[in-house]
Amino acid sequence: MAQKLTANLPDSLDLDEKYTLRFTAIDPNNGSNITTVNISSIQIHCDNVAGTPIELLEVGPFQIVSGPSS
Amino acid sequence: MPADVTIAGPGVHAAPVDYPVPGAAELLIKTLSATFDGTNAAGPWTPAVQLLIGGTTVVATFPLGQSLVAGASADVAWFSGVSAGGSTGSVQLTRIYDTLLTSSQANFTVSGIAQTYTTLLMFATLRDDFAAVNTNCQFTLNGNVTTTTYNYKDSDGNTNQSTTAGLMCASTGANADATHFGNSIIYCHDYAVVQADHAFFGTTHVIGQETNTGTWYARTVSAQTCTTSAAAVTSFAFAPDHGTVWVAGSRLTVYGLS
Asked: Cβ of A65 and B82 within 8 Å?
């Protein structure tokens, strides 16, 4: 059964198109990506500050989750 | 008022998984979450979120405050206000090694120890094949089996300096009743710090009946082994001091404490 764990994010992490947000698993000794770890159920919960049409926030396999606030 | 949005990633994908913020968009991140499956990981690993510029240059890394062992899985959530150690104010105890022998084995070797904990805490249940009621356990660090960098002393008066192995704890031997094993607790604080004199402390309790005579015996012994090598501890091994193998039923469990 997967452990439930929490980690820290800085306050007010404001990202524009210069940035890529990466989910990964790293080697604790050297920081390299460990590609044998699989990642699923990714969710990015954010404020759409610039008011971009939400369909334009869908990039590649990333999709908007429908809901009252979407 | 900026709209609250949730963006979901692909089903199952090998790490890393990238979301490039699309052109003209500006996102204020509230929380991030994902499920990590380390079933196929070969060693310790750490879930992390990173920021990249230009899609290639990592400018920030936000790791979970602990490493996970190979085979572990975790649902991880990132949000502000969480201490670097994981759940706010909590102590993290991570099992990094656990082997119960089903057949004889020459030693327990623990390698690839992540350098992210403050203390190593170990529990050992040991019995070897030496023809005695109880005996001792030999201990080496970082694969050093030929360098004379070990000093040890125990409460029974066994002591030596500049040897090729230390004494760490005790075990039962072949003459003890079949169901009896020595039980030990061992720790090393600041094992990941590069410093002289990494010290491992162990205490063993052995109690049981000698098979040949029916005589009851009991022994409590504490031991300390330290090494004059300053290198951080990345591996260690337990082997019988007089016997040749640990027998089935022997077990070593190692935790990282942070």
From this structure: no
Rounded CA-CA distance B16/B74 in Å is 16
Query: Is the ipTM beyond the 0.90 threshold?
Result: yes
Cα separation values, B202 from B53, B58, B133, B167, Å: 49, 43, 19, 9
pLDDT digit string (tens) for B159-169? 888 888 888 88
Nearest to B22 among A29, A41, A56 (CB): A56
pLDDT at B101 over 90: yes
Distance from CA of A55 to the nearest CA of B (A): 11
Question: In this structure, is the dihedral angle defined by the CA atoms of residues B189, B192, B198 and B203, taken in order, positive or negative?
Answer: positive
